Amino acid sequence: MQVHALRRLVVILPLLAASLGLAGCGKLADALPGSYTDIAAISADPAKFEGREIRVKGVVASVGKFPFASTRYFTLRGPRGAELSVVTELPAPAMGREVWSYGKIENIAIIKGTGMGVHLNESRRICEPDSGSGHFSKLFGCWTR
To answer: Residue 37 has what DSSP assignment?
Structure first.
């Protein structure tokens, strides 16, 4: 009976430790490279993404602030060159900085199925990685700061 209980413990303990570790650092999906939406896909069909909560990552191409408001905005450029505006209440990231963000896609208007004024309303910043060559090394760098 002890051997069976020990085997079960050996299987369950690492899974429990991993899930608690990931839960403490943010949502589990943030750790999965495939859970990020390609900015080019959003640009190609903005109406399709209306109201969806998504994760995106890219490099900050421009930064600005709305006058007389605490709202800031920046533009993320994806790996294929497509750009997405991001509206946020968080501090604006620096130009040229890589940013991983989570929020809801909104369009100012949708006319005959075509989205206009598409932007991400950022609810949280997942990561602003400093270095690393792969997704997991960059994410680990954010979690250990």
So the answer is: P
